[in-house]
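Subgroup meeting minutes
Present: P.N., E.W., G.H.
Scribe: E.W.

1. P.N. recapped why we're keeping a running log of single-chain structure predictions: easier to compare across weeks, and new members can see raw inputs and outputs side by side.
2. G.H. added today's entry (169 aa).
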Amino acid sequence: MATSKKTGSAHHGQWTVVAREGHINLKTNRIGIFTIDATAPIVGGEADWQAGQATLKLEVGINEVKTGNRLLDPEVHALVNSGSDGVLTFAGTGHVTDSEVRFEGKAWAGNVEVPLVLTGEPQDFGGEERDVTIDGTATFEDIHLPLPGFSNVKSIDVHIRGLLKLMRA
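Output recorded in log:
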């Protein structure tokens, strides 16, 4: 009797996104005279990466976002806290191979929701931990920003780069 070889990625299985170990960088296109370049911590999530279909849920602490501008940070925090509970959530489905991850889904905070595709690359260190770099862009249309000089903005592109730290569940 022949034995069947299990095919698939070394990354398949149940994973927990390790809180406070990873981060997301958010950078906007030009809004008036500004671009906003900020960092926020990953505060939780989970991944179920099976051979047929993979899911990812990711939570980002946008209430802890840092822009590096001490004058802009309080305004951004007020904006985030006025419209949400301070957490940006992404949920998507896709696939994972040894060299690529791709998830299509949505990201939301409060009553703002946008479609988002995250792509990236898993890094296998052997054992029970993985790092996954991710990349994507979300576009927000016709929004009101209660920040001085911004009021109504027709479109903002937010470029997302991040590092997920995963632990086998």
